[in-house]
Write a structure and sequence with these properties.
The complex is a heterotetramer, with two copies of chain A and two copies of chain C. By secondary structure, chain A is α/β, with parallel strands linked by helices. Chain A has five helices and 16 strands. Chain A has a domain at 2-93: Elongation Factor Tu (Ef-tu), domain 3 (Beta Barrel), CATH 2.40.30.10. Chain A has helices at 26-31, 73-79, 119-128, 168-175, 192-205; strands at residues 2-15, 18-24, 37-41, 52-55, 58-60, 63-69, 86-93, 106-112, 132-139, 153-157, 164-165, 184-189, 209-212, 228-230, 238-240, 247-249. In chain A, strand 12, helix 5 (192-205) and strand 13 form a beta-alpha-beta unit. Chain C is α/β, with parallel strands linked by helices. Chain C has a single domain (6-53, 74-193, 216-313), classed as Aldolase class I (TIM Barrel, Alpha-Beta Barrel), CATH 3.20.20.70. The model of chain C is unreliable at 307-314 (pLDDT under 50). Chain C is built from eight helices and 18 strands. Helices cover 29% and strands 20% of the residues of chain C. In chain C, helix 4 crosses helix 5. Classes of the chains: A alpha/beta, C alpha/beta. The interface between C and D is large, with 76 and 76 residues. The structure holds flavin-adenine dinucleotide (2 copies), flavin mononucleotide (FMN) (2 copies) and FE2/S2 (inorganic) cluster (FES) (2 copies). One flavin mononucleotide binds next to loops of chain D.
Chain lengths: 255, 255, 314, 314
Amino acid sequence: MLHILARVLHVTSVAPNVYVLAFHAPDLAAAVRPGQFVNILTGDSLQPLLRRPFSVYRTEGDAVEVIFQRVGKGTAALSLAQPGGFLDIIGPLGAGFHLDDPRYQTAVLIGGGLGVAPLPIATAALQKAGKRVVTLLGARTAGQLVETHLENVHVATDDGTRGLHGTVVDLAAQYLPVGAHEDARLFGCGPTPMLRALAEFARTRALECEVSLEGQMACGIGICQGCPVELTGQLRTYALMCKDGPVFNTRDIVI
Amino acid sequence: MLHILARVLHVTSVAPNVYVLAFHAPDLAAAVRPGQFVNILTGDSLQPLLRRPFSVYRTEGDAVEVIFQRVGKGTAALSLAQPGGFLDIIGPLGAGFHLDDPRYQTAVLIGGGLGVAPLPIATAALQKAGKRVVTLLGARTAGQLVETHLENVHVATDDGTRGLHGTVVDLAAQYLPVGAHEDARLFGCGPTPMLRALAEFARTRALECEVSLEGQMACGIGICQGCPVELTGQLRTYALMCKDGPVFNTRDIVI
Amino acid sequence: MVRTEFHIAGVHFKNRVLAASGTFGYGDECTDLVDVQRLGGIVTKSLSLKPRDGNPPPRIVETSGGMLNSIGLANIGVHRFIAEKLPRLRALDITVVANIAASSVDEYCAVLDLLEEAGGAHAYEINVSCPNVKEGGLNFGTDCAMTAGITRRLRARTRKPLILKLTPNVAQISTFARAVQDEGADAVSVINTLIGMAIDIRTRKPLLSTVTGGLSGPAIKPVALAKVYETARSVHIPVIGIGGISTPSDAIEFFLAGATAVQVGTANFIDPAAGVHVAEGIATWCTTQGIDDVGKLVGTLDTQGGVSVLESWL
Amino acid sequence: MVRTEFHIAGVHFKNRVLAASGTFGYGDECTDLVDVQRLGGIVTKSLSLKPRDGNPPPRIVETSGGMLNSIGLANIGVHRFIAEKLPRLRALDITVVANIAASSVDEYCAVLDLLEEAGGAHAYEINVSCPNVKEGGLNFGTDCAMTAGITRRLRARTRKPLILKLTPNVAQISTFARAVQDEGADAVSVINTLIGMAIDIRTRKPLLSTVTGGLSGPAIKPVALAKVYETARSVHIPVIGIGGISTPSDAIEFFLAGATAVQVGTANFIDPAAGVHVAEGIATWCTTQGIDDVGKLVGTLDTQGGVSVLESWL
Ligand SMILES: Cc1cc2nc3c(=O)[nH]c(=O)nc-3n(C[C@H](O)[C@H](O)[C@H](O)COP(=O)(O)OP(=O)(O)OC[C@H]3O[C@@H](n4cnc5c(N)ncnc54)[C@H](O)[C@@H]3O)c2cc1C
Ligand SMILES: Cc1cc2nc3c(=O)[nH]c(=O)nc-3n(C[C@H](O)[C@H](O)[C@H](O)COP(=O)(O)OP(=O)(O)OC[C@H]3O[C@@H](n4cnc5c(N)ncnc54)[C@H](O)[C@@H]3O)c2cc1C
Ligand SMILES: Cc1cc2nc3c(=O)[nH]c(=O)nc-3n(C[C@H](O)[C@H](O)[C@H](O)COP(=O)(O)O)c2cc1C
Ligand SMILES: Cc1cc2nc3c(=O)[nH]c(=O)nc-3n(C[C@H](O)[C@H](O)[C@H](O)COP(=O)(O)O)c2cc1C
Ligand code: FES
Ligand code: FES
């Protein structure tokens, strides 16, 4: 866990309202694993008060990239970050995907909307590990798809403007017919309803599935107890999204 | 009183930490009188919460200018205003200087530090009215003096780097020997201690003196009662700085 | 068209957004900048029997997300209000709530009597966050019996809507709300400012001449909302929500929590048309949501799944 | 060199800035990011007799200048604290204040007894903002007799410093402070969070699973400062100031208002080294001001010229 002032390299719009932010952070780039996140201070005064968490999108040499959608005050401020300026960042945080398990061959990466965020860094690691990678992307509409730095991409759009007319879980159902893919493992990221559907899909197909969750955080480092994730089994026992997650095996949690 | 979104023309640093901000505001430029001020929303979110008051420095055609020192959050944000962007401004506010009284011939304009702010717009009006103008400027050090758009400038610096080594009130004492200037009237603006000294000086010399005050404001338009200025005479009776001032005759107020 | 009007004890308000006392003068100051007739109503600056000069400066400090004030009830007094302001307000199509402050129960009564006689005010809001001079300066509003007593005395003197404005600086605001309801109050306004303070570390002096003052603005919105929720669940008279409301969305939160109407305060200092923008934004939002009456939002917070207070925060 | 240390009932604190309960875990979580030994002390997350899972999500909402939380006292329980955390804390050169929460007076006693037996904690801070299960969930901290009763029972069981952490959600916090002082408390911590609430207007649901929660952060600083000022003027035991402190200047305001020490809470979430920065910034400021002991600031607010409370804000 590092606390750094990282120099902004660039902020680039890659789709309407979607930006890739790159910053210079050699130690972070060396340490981060796929599925981990960084917690960025988006304003220098107190507006917004808390840091904002973002999955690491890619590393490229000494640079670390995140991809984000402008939804509110924090992301609006980030979208205006100036190259050469500095950002106050804590990371890498959380536990990432378990990509290197020898018990599977094909990694099916599934991203809904900005859930694409951790997939490029995961792809790079999977390629290194010699796994086969298939990527299923979903978006509301074709223009919102961000497909770079991925492998074997299949797409679905809610409005049918590209690929399958439907959700990315529908696409997974199509891509993974019953019983056909025991050696496959699912890695998903996206909005909670999508992850819920994905978990259900994985359960019915008896596939292992890890998902990266989103939700409210205050500290991001395990000291506030603000980010409970309900565990299956006993009622109301919780893991911490920021420390124990944000990636969980869907078997272990109530989404 | 207007409430406008004014296009920023430029923000120019004119001395260390001192900026002139020009914005396009034809109706305001036409309406404003010397000594009046504008109330600017410096941030689009709530940091800082309240507007910030600034004397009008100059008008030039359809443009209105203010000059300000960067001291905190609001002025820091203003110093970063982008040409082409828009600022939310209310003005003109308050009562200005009474420049056109026929009972005096020489206007002695006295500015301490950023108290120079209302003097250029006053100079322009006085020139039109055919008055003689003398300007006395004080600053901590030579580099902080802003002397453009003024007439007959004499200076004093606290550190003696230019002009008289002393305060602008010392300079006034030198410039206005006892009894010599019954036809002169003083118009001052600057930090409260300077205005207090100036008021005392005017009293001992029996000169009419108007000063522009500074202090905390919330609304700037007379609806909050937040900006009392104590009146002489009865104990604890107040005028409102934003509505009845910010310019007062030093005879009428307790500074 | 979304229905925005509502009534309190038979008095009509055009919409559910009023200007809060002390944050909009007497309603006639900024007609340049805003068409006050588009507000649901105007609550006047608190009126006392005699004019009050108020506290020495400084009276205002900005804080994180809020501001402190210690105006000291500076006001022109009820006589000048009747003579100068009421005629101007009568000329407008606007519901006027006269807010009354006093340092004795008799003074409350005297101010109300004068306003009743003059006519023109449609309703009264009673500011009980005032020091009771007879009781050594103890604040009326923090003593339930005194608050109830004021209500009783005033209720006997008017048939117009009587709205008690409660202070949040008590342990349980709902106790006070019930007490004034029992004495015949037609509504309660919740909340007045929180007690706060700020210091200039360079001079080592308080930033308000009175040391402490009243905190208002967005910073207090969560507190105000909780107080409105608490109050609305324990009385059947309307609750008027106040505290940090700057946007239509803020106001809707208060409606959901149980407020029948809201008042916009500090936000007027940033934009005198804030109240109008809030009112019109609410109507627009209702349209997009297919809601035909703003009143249908009131008290519709969905707390299903909310765990019991016993398990609550610690 | 500026003297920064101080003592409470004989226990030494390196400097006057502590990490607040619930905002710094058990002190051993972020040693990567901050040298905790540069803090004046660490107050642990509230410890209950049995581990507590806490409330369902969402537990956190950001508000203007602040945040709401309804953690629900999620903690590992006093046994695991003693077994796992105390040994690690003992290895550090840091003053440890164990914060205790409970839902009955007996539970408070049981937790304290276990900690006494284990040793290692230098002082106790008692969180009374807890629902008393026996009294139908009434919060201990809003009942003066119950708060005093807890103090009496605990005082009889320990000679270590006993610090009562008071809730601001009462009419007069100084009454509570005097009551616990009379029962032998060595200090009071002022304040815990304010009750607040926020709503998602799209879903019409509260943004906290428990509907209401505790407001903290810069937004509450003015309220906290006023409570500290009120308390410090009415007790002779030390007052530990808490509420919205993020900068050295914030802390100095609390010292001037009468706080002997301060705690940094929410600011740790933004920067886990916030407490250290505050502590070191205070020392630097004192140097520039020629002040040789931070303690010389305590209670030195200059209120001369402040008008009387009678004339105060309304
Ligand atoms: C572990 C983790 C990783 C994340 N990774 C990414 C990422 O790689 N790219 C990315 O764009 N976003 C990511 N997010 C979400 C991101 O943190 C939020 O979008 C961001 O905090 C919004 O900040 P804001 O100030 O712009 O919006 P706010 O002003 O805080 O909120 C604006 C609107 O967005 C909604 N919102 C706020 N936070 C979230 C959230 N966490 N999820 C959904 N809606 C929210 C609010 O309800 C509100 O309606 C991640 C979140 C977590 C917890
Ligand atoms: C009628 C009027 C006209 C003014 N005209 C000008 C002008 O032409 N040019 C100009 O530079 N300034 C002018 N000021 C002062 C200006 O409004 C403040 O400097 C500004 O509000 C500071 O905002 P901030 O957010 O940058 O500072 P803040 O963050 O609010 O404060 C930063 C520091 O500056 C101090 N400060 C804040 N406001 C004032 C003030 N009013 N006077 C002295 N110190 C203050 C604070 O105590 C604090 O230490 C005027 C003020 C008034 C009332
Ligand atoms: C400067 C100022 C003056 C106020 N004066 C009064 C007053 O005279 N009478 C009153 O009942 N409330 C008064 N209030 C309280 C407001 O009406 C309102 O209850 C409070 O500010 C909370 O709302 P807000 O956060 O929207 O401002 C005043 C508030 C402010 C900020
Ligand atoms: C997430 C969170 C958890 C907290 N948990 C506790 C707790 O367990 N026990 C306690 O006494 N106070 C707890 N507090 C209150 C803080 O210790 C502190 O009193 C309060 O937050 C005000 O200080 P601040 O504004 O600096 O955060 C908690 C506060 C927060 C924000
Ligand atoms: S966000 Fe604080 S513990 Fe997870
Ligand atoms: S600043 Fe509001 S009345 Fe002057």
